[in-house]
Every structure is written in structure tokens, then in C-alpha cells.
Specification:
Length: 411
Amino acid sequence: MAHHARTLIAAAALLMLSPGCGPGAGAPVTGATQSLVLEPRPVEIVLGFTGRISPGDRADLLAPYEGVIETLHVHVGDRVAAGDALVTLNPADLQRERAQAEAALLRAEADAADLEDWENGPEMSRARRDVAGARADLSDLERRLEETAALLERGLVPRGEYDGLVQQRRDLVMQLDQALEQLEATRERGTGNQRRIALLERDLARERLERIEAELANSTLRAPVAGLVVRPPDADGELGEPLRAGSRVSRGRPLLIVARPDALDVSFRLDEGDVTALLPGAPVRVTGPGFPGVELTGTLTAVAGQAEVSAVGQQAEFTATARLDPLPDPAAESVRIGMTADIDVVVFADDAALLVPAQAVEGTPGDAWVHVRDAPGAPPRRVQVEIRATGPAGVVLGEGVAPGDTVVWQN
């Protein structure tokens, strides 16, 4: 919310209520009048907000795996150098997971090795032996059947013995066919989708083990850059719970932020009435009770594209961010992340603006006019004008008038 009364909305209200506005306006100026000779003058229109100093350039440290915090090497607010240890996680849980991953990789590698030399592997050898055995049994039986047939023709063996051998031959032929089918199916297992699956499972098991080993190597989180240690915000934008040794953290949870003290932001909220007035690139000036007597400068960098509903009055609010210029040495020692800040955003500035009172302008923005007198005693003429900006001090005019013009309006 703005903490100043210097807003575009207030000025627009003055314009809409000025004399002669509305349908049918634009009649010649009569009665008691006032006049103003346009002269360039410096004009600045500022919107004021309250916010907080926040991290600008920063590095977020996330938990590399789920585990328990073993050691906190720093506290919030500490200054750290690049490479300093910040947090150490207990690796016991991850070491157990690593052992399981290594066992899975060994099994997957054994399966893949079997399939890579499948033709000479034990299953193919067993299938080939079954085929060879079935063929040998069938060959022996066919020789016996041939001998028995010769004996049967001479009447030396009964017919039933011969018929029994014929039935056995049928069974052995079926066994040989089954053994051949099993051999082909076993061969396909080593060359088709089964082999592909085994190779993929081996690769996945290896990647999992490599990931866990990399996480184990990062059990101690170190500062990637020099800066200030800051507590990360939670999902609602408020400061999260402080870290404690012995606390369990989930994978990917933000643990700490390392913010560069020479690249700070200031963040604040504004209501929907001010959103269109604030454009990235606008200059800002920042003061605060925590750094009295110091005025910081910066540039508006972003205004959120989506509104948030405020807790008070259920009004729509937007978050805006400005990047502060590098702090001078005295300010760098006193400005701290999280401090309250008063932010002035310069929405309009011109050292040679043509400013008139709001009562001098008639019509509406986009279709506004003033009355200009070309010479003393001459009747005023209506001139269409461009409104560049409005503020409590008046209305800044653009095209349509020039320095030296005399603008007149009714009292």
C-alpha cells in the first residue's frame, strides 16, 4: 500500500472534478478567470511504499537428499567466503541406500553379462543338450524299431511288442519337437526384448549408484559464493523455520541462502490501482529506520504479473522488486537483509515540464483541452492537449501547447 498521498489516482480525481468537465463542456471561458503563462519547470511525481530489503543476487542451497542435519557450521546473518562449510547432513540413511543400489547393480550386470554372451551361456547349453538327448533317444528307438520289424516279419516277436515301440517313437518325436521349440525360445530371449530390458536395467542401476555416490560426496554443503547467510522463505513468502541440528529434511528443501551484500533488492507490495503507473526501469530512492541518514538508490526491475489476495480486506496486491545500486561503504555496514524500507518510486520526472493546475484542464484523459489566450484582451481559444502525467501539484501537458502560451480558466 502507498504510504504517501502522491498518487496518480488522486490527481486523476482532481482532473475529473475540474470545472467544465463532462458532456457538453468546452464553452468559451467567461466571468472571472485566472491565467498562467507556461514556463518549463522541474516536475517529479513519486509513489511511496513500504517494503523490506531482500536478497538480490543469491545462491540457494537445497538438501541433496533426505536426511538428518548433523552439523550447522554457520548462523543466519554470518558472512561467509566461497567454499566455507555451511551444513553437514548425516549420511547413514544414504549409505544404506547406496549398499542396496550397489547390490542391484551387481545383479543387473550379471544378468546383462549372461545375455551379452547368450549363445554360449548356460541356458542355451542346457537347451542344446535337451535337443541332442531327444535326438539320440529317437535314433536309438528307430534302430530298435527297425530290428523289431524284421523279427516280426519272421514271426519271432509278437505284434504287441512292435506296436509298443511305434508308440514310443511318437512320444520321442514329440519330445524332440518340444526341445527344438524350447531351444528357439531360449535363443530369442537372448536377442530380443529380454536382452534390451536387461541392458536398460543395468544402465539404470549404474546411474542410480552414481547419483547416490554424488549425493554422498555433497553431504557437506559449502558456500558457492561469498556473501551473507540468509534464512529462505517458506511457500507463503515468510521466513521459514530455522534449521536445527538433528532435524530431518526432505530432498530438495531450501536450507539456506547465500546473498551477495553488494547486490541487494528491495521488495514491496502495491494495490491494483498503482500497477499501471509502475514500469520497470523507474528510479527508486530507499530510506529506512535501520540506516538513518542514508538514502539508497536503485531501479525498479519487476512487477508481478499475477495478483495475490491480501489478508486485510481481501484486496488484490502485486509484488514489486527493485535492484539497489552498489551500497557505499558506510551503508554496507548498516543495511541488513530483512530491514524495513521506505521506497519512493519516481514515476515521472522532467526538468522542463509544462505544469498547469488541474482546474485548467477540461475533458478526460485522451480527450482533454485547455483554453489559450493569444494576446491580452483576445478571446481564448480551445486547444486539444496531451496529458503526460498528473499529480497533486497539477497536470503536466504535452503536445498542443508550448512555453510562453497563456492558459486561462474560470475561478
